[in-house]
Each structure stands twice: as structure tokens, then as C-alpha cells.
Amino acid sequence: MRQTFPAPLLRVSSAALLVAGLIAGCSFDDRASTDNAASADSDASTAQPFDALRGEELGILRHSIRKLRNECLAEAGYPQNLTHMAQEPDDDFDHLRFDLRTFGPVDEQEARRSGFGKDAPAQIARIVSFDANYDQEVERCELAASKKIGPEAQELSVSYGELGNTLMGEFGKEYERLIGPQLSELRTSLRDCLAEAGFQAEDPEDFAREPYPEKLGVRFGAHETIVEEAWSPERKEGTIQIGPAIPAKKYVPTEEEVELAVAWSKCTQRLEFKERLMPLVISAQQTVYERHEEQLAEHADKTVDLAKKAADLKW
Predict the structure, then answer these.
(1) pLDDT tens across 22-39, in order?
(2) Lower Cβ count inside 10 Å, N or C end of the chain?
(3) CA 18 to CA 24: how far, in whole Å?
(4) What stretch of H or E contains 252?
(5) CA-based radius of gyration for the chain
């Protein structure tokens, strides 16, 4: 069985790395919904060292490879991928950008709207193959698409993504080193602030060591149910099956989750998380960026050149 919708770049979310050595253990998505993004972005640092990575151009390059592959497949009698592919490229380094939501809901308005959750973005149709001929054509067209752009296209697409993952891993370690001296005090202060608001952990000392919202005894919400998610392919040799696209899903918090999220937001503002922690984010990024600056510059130049060439190509 082959699934041919594009697999996402292997990556660790920025939030997960900060949370690992920080305060909040919320479940953060890599990408926020458009409605939720504005308030955090308006308060976040306007420039970060990782902004120099050319995620938009990498997204264009990868999108162009997929489009050429899918046009090749359509010519071979398999139009499914071209018909159902994403219409616009992604910014493939968007997950390397940090905002205040990393530390929890950014303000009371967001806390009341979404609790600790995030809306889930829409997903394109899933294409699942049980057809050996189609599978062979996919492999042939993938190679042909990369070669049409240039011999470095596929290798660059992979290596730049891997470099981004390396930066994220090293960033996490550097950030933990910088925050270490104040970590215990911040966690304890958060615990005490939440307790004053009426949210007491069953084991306060355990919460101070790992302050996850789930330890405060509230019931959390969930994403709305989408019927399209229930689709699964029927295993039948010689077929190519198309599952429905999945619309964006709204996260619906519980009332008690909202109240905790409001208290959490007020506490992080009172404890000046933004003022104390965002400078550490910038400093950790800068250290890691400088460590790989030459390699990053080389990848950026090549990606920009290939993306310009790829965007105008047709099969």
C-alpha cells in the first residue's frame, strides 16, 4: 500500500522544546489557526535569528517538485495527485518561529476562546494505492521531476530540512542551559500563582517540578468531530483510492479548562514570562545560528536559486 500525499517534514515543534525545559506542558500544535495567530504575533519579537532560514523558498521548491511529479503522473494516466494536491506551498520552516503562545494562552481573550487548544488546519485528500503500476509510475515521476529542476533539487530539499531539525535540537539544549538558573523559581512561582487563583495540584511539589495543566484536575476539551476523518481505504488490489479532504477542525474547550487558561494567562503576565524568557529564545537562536552560519548561507543561496527556477517549470 502506498500513500502519496506529501509527508510532512520531520520536525520538532518549537513549543515542545521550550516546554521540555520550561514551564508549561500544554499540547501545542506546530501551526496556529489564523484567528489565534494575530495576538501572539503582535507581541512577539519582530526579528529572530531563525527568520533568516528560507522556509518559503524551500516550500516553493518542494511544492514544485510535487507538482511536476503529479503532472508526470497525469500524463501517464493517473490524474489523482494533480487533482487533489495542495494549491499553495507551505513555509517549511514556520515551525522554527517562536511566539508568546509557547508559554500558554497569550491573553484572556484567547484563553476564553480556545483554552489551551488550537484549531486543527485542513488536510488535503489522502490517496492510497494498491496498484503496483501506479506505484512504479510514482517512483519514476519523482525522479524525473527532481532531475527536471536540477540534479541538486531533491538532495537540497532533504538536507535543508535536516539542517533545520539540527538547529531545533541544538536550540533546545542551549535554551535549557540559559534558563537553568531561574527555572526552579519560575516553576514554583507559577504553582503559587495558580493556587491563589484556586487551582491547586494534588501534589504541589510534583507540579512545581513539572507544571503541566493536566495535573490541576480539570477536564479538557477536544476538536470537533469531522466525519471525513473516519474514512479508511478498502484493501483491493489494482485500485487507487481517494479519501476525502479533511476540513479545518475547531478546538472546543470545556468551561473549567477556560477558567484555568484564563488564570494561567494572568499568571504568566504577572510573572513577566515574555520579558524574562523571550530574550533567552533570541540568545539561544543566535548562538546556534552562528554555529552553522556558513552552511546555512550556502543552503539559502541554492534554495533561492532553485525555487526561482522551479516555480516557472511545467512538465
Answers:
(1) 543 333 233 333 344 444
(2) N
(3) 9
(4) strand 251-252
(5) 22
pLDDT digits (tens, 9 = 90+) for 142-163: 999 988 998 789 899 999 999 9
> 3-class SS at 223?
strand
Q: State the greatest distance between any 2 C-alpha atoms of the chain, in Å, as a whole number.
A: 67
Which of 307, 294, 287 lies closest to 49, judged by CA? 287
pLDDT value for 15:
42
User: DSSP assignment of 120-186, as one string?
Assistant: BPPBPPEEEE--HHHHHHHHHHHHHHHHHH-TTHHHHHHHHHHHHHHHHHHHHHHHHHHHHHHHHHH
Amino acid symbol at 26? C
SS3 221: coil
What distance in Å separates the CA atoms of residue 64 and residue 237, rounded to the nearest whole number?
Answer: 30
Residue 243's nearest CA partner among 124, 126, 98, 107 is: 126
Q: Cα–Cα distance between 309 and 186 in angstroms, integer?
A: 49
CA atoms in the 13 A half-sphere facing the CB of 205: 0
Which strand (E) or helix (H) includes residue 242?
strand 240-243
